[in-house]
Design a protein that fits this description.
Radius of gyration: 22 Å
CATH topology of the largest domain: Multidrug-efflux Transporter Regulator, Chain: A, Domain 2
Number of domains: 2
Mean pLDDT: 74
Helix content: 40-55%
CATH architecture of the largest domain: Orthogonal Bundle
Number of helices: 5
Oligomer: single chain
Shape: globular
């Protein structure tokens, strides 16, 4: 498939061989591809400070829990990142395990 680089966007064109197969390939811009992926598959990652604020704890406490594996996290180039949905699930599981509310801070 031939890709053209234009200032507006990247556009894919069908080679003649593909067109002869009777298959239709719709040209898409890079922006439409990225926006469709972002809405369907990707959840933004929170840094330690934002995740800690969400959980109402100090960011160093959160990083310690991440290091020990207590809390779902991702370490990229020495920095910790978190998904809000995973933090929510983790927090709910902590409440369910104890049968009562969990003190956060």
């Amino acid at each position: 498939m031939e890709t053209l680089h234009t200032p507006e966007a990247l556009v894919c064109r069908q080679p003649a061989a593909v067109a002869n197969l009777g298959r239709s390939i719709t040209p898409m811009t890079t922006q439409s591809i990225v926006s469709s992926l972002a809405t369907e598959e990707f959840e933004p990652l929170l840094n330690s400070r934002k995740a800690a604020a969400l959980l109402r704890m100090h960011y160093k406490t959160l990083e310690r829990k991440a290091r020990s594996g207590e809390i779902p996290s991702y370490q990229v180039v020495g920095r910790w990142f978190f998904r809000a949905s995973e933090l929510d699930s983790w927090l709910r599981s902590q409440v369910n395990l104890s049968g009562q509310s969990v003190r956060m801070n």
